[in-house]
Prior knowledge:
Blueprint: H1 11-31, H2 34-50, H3 64-75, H4 80-87, H5 91-94, H6 99-105, H7 108-116, H8 131-147, H9 150-164, H10 171-191, H11 195-209, H12 211-245, E1 252-257, E2 274-281, H13 284-297, E3 299-300, E4 306-307, E5 320-326, E6 329-337, H14 338-346, H15 348-352, H16 361-374, H17 381-389, E7 392-396, E8 402-406, H18 411-418, H19 420-424, E9 426-431, E10 441-444, E11 455-459, H20 476-508, H21 515-519, H22 522-530, H23 535-543, H24 549-555, H25 566-570, H26 573-581, E12 586-589, E13 597-599, E14 611-616, E15 620-625, H27 629-633, E16 642-649, E17 656-657, E18 660-666, H28 671-681, E19 686-693, E20 698-705, E21 708-709, H29 710-720, E22 726-730
Parallel strand pairs: 2-6, 12-16, 13-15
Antiparallel strand pairs: 1-2, 3-5, 4-5, 5-6, 7-8, 9-10, 9-11, 14-15, 14-16, 17-21, 18-20, 18-22, 19-20
Helix pairs in contact: 1-2, 1-3, 2-4, 3-4, 3-9, 6-7, 7-8, 8-9, 8-16, 9-11, 10-11, 11-12, 20-23
Amino acid sequence: MSSSKQTNISASDKALITDLDKQIRSYVQEYGTRKDSELLDQAISDIGQYHENQKRKSGQPFIIHPLRVASYICRAGLDAPTVVAALLHDIIEDTSITHEDINERYGSWYADIVTGLTKIKKPESPENLTVDNLDATYQRMLKTMVQDVRALFIKLFDRLDNMRDMDAMPRDKQRRISLETLNIYVPIAERLGLTQICQEHTELCFKLLYPKRYQKTLIEIDDLKKDRISTIKAMKDSLQNNLEKQKFAYHNVEPLYVHPSSRIQESGPIDHILEGFRIVVKNSLDCFQALGIVHTNYYVIPLKIRDYISNPLWNGYEGIQTELRMEGEQTLIEIVSEEMLTKNQYGIMAHWSGSPTELADYYRIYLSQLDQMAGDKDVRMLDVMSYVQSDQVQVYSPEGDMLVFPQGSTVLDFAYGIHTELGNHCIGALVNPSSVGTTKKRVPRERQLFTGEALQIITDKGVHPKEEWLNQVKTAKSRSQIKRAVEQQKVLNVRNSGRALLERKLREKGEELSVEKWIKSMMVKSALKAENLTANQFFQEIGLQKRPLQQFLRKYKLLHFESSGRLKKMIRPEFWGNVFGGDKNIFLIDDVQNPLIRLANCCFPIPGDKILGFIHDDKEIEIHLADCPKIINNKKLTQSRLIPIDVSWNISKKISRSHVIHLHVIDGTGILFQITKIIKDAGVAIIYSESAEKNKKEADILIKLEPVSWPVFHKIVEKLRPLKFVKKIWE
């Protein structure tokens, strides 16, 4: 960096900047490409220019922060592009540089990473600092982190450097940032096996949140170590001697002390200092050999052997743990290889190996689940954090693939975790399906999962998600998928209802085309285009009664019932004259699909009912039940717009056809049973039926009957109408 960028900087800060600059350049030159070195030069120049006059609360030049974060990335052994991105991580948030500028200078990957790590600017007014703003910030950050895990490392080291430099911050800000770190970043780090980072973050939070208790804890730990130093040394020597007696080549035996970070939630005195001993060996085979040696020479606590080599924990931890009786104490012994120790300390960082695609399965599964949750608009950040912070259970598919879920998750969560369609049609599962004997059993979808079990999901295509399923799941992803499926089903039911209404109208007007062909005709396509509607949107609006069907059809002249005087033309002149001359004539209805006839949708008359007729706007005859409340209670309807006309049914009793009954009902217990019983008592078979919840208290039921005569159909409807739960019934 040029000296012009370092004016008004102390000698110590200048030395630090120079040293960090040198470390970073050396690392990128050794492990990066020529292009990486060029981008590094550009990044150092940009942060020097744009952060030039900025200072930290501590008084240090701001540039020290991105340099330190980049140096942490180097020490962690990550790739050169991550180092460059680390240098730029604050440049959008704290300078005039934009996403477009980064994209132009460095490329889209850098622009997306830096933007994802950038917090949404806090609004000037506190009232505008809404939960939605916070959700948007964290969701964007989390989504960036899980899409490219290198962003996660940058964010964790960024937060670590900020926590180390927190002393100059106001007390309230120290507390807010510490709580955020403890509740968000620490659980993520823990789940990804980043033990060292997790411990340091937690200890710094402990120091800032509870400074007095933290200092007391350090003193207690130091005093306990001094009190027990001779006993701990004797136990260590004993382990070493027994290993050496067998001429076993081990790397190290070290005591595991209580770490200050483990005491952040504990306010009482520390009752022990020694957690156990770690034996470090060369490879996994040596782990089992070392286990045999210690079990031969010490009393083994029964049922306290845990093999995490064959089955690593959900955070990637590997090793063997056992408990022995030593020096009169029950002591934990951890046996790991050198490689396992590195992996256990650095977790996902150790497994990364330069490519996110090479991550171990347990990390990839966890990140993919976070990605799905963060990408779902219905999932709040609180849901994501609840998942991050919860205890985990490990379960397996029949193929042996491991899946990780929060404690309390169910079979239904497991089904949705594999595939949405499995979840949507899940009725239960077989536990340990490849097993023989009595261990293989069938369980319902609401049953909780237990670590170690394998499950095979059982589905039924006739089963669909319902709102009560929301009480059967734990994960936010499952809840989101259920809500989406329920909403989609509601939309589908509404569309089917709209389609049925249109089909009925087409029949009433004598249209020979089917709904599918009619909706694809040029005139209809043109009308829908004029209204900016798709066919499905049209059906939906009709079904929701947001768009009056009759009005739409008249507006675009789609059924030719818009012509003035059409009724007059179709009724023989002498009859028409008699109507207006005052002499009574009866108009006989011999076909409910007659284009002259419109069955009123306020009372839904059917052949066999006592009826009244009205000439409606000189276009069609509107048929009502004789006791229709709309006619009885509204005298205006009998005035100029509607002309009364005597009508009567003249439909042959021999005509049989299939009928479709539509019912709008108040939801309750046993409704469908009562309806189907009336139909079956009439000796009529049901071809199919379906129901759809309209809201929490009401539902629509559709029942298609086998072909029957009109008198039989009328008898069924007459028995259904008086039922208390039936609000509307029509054919």
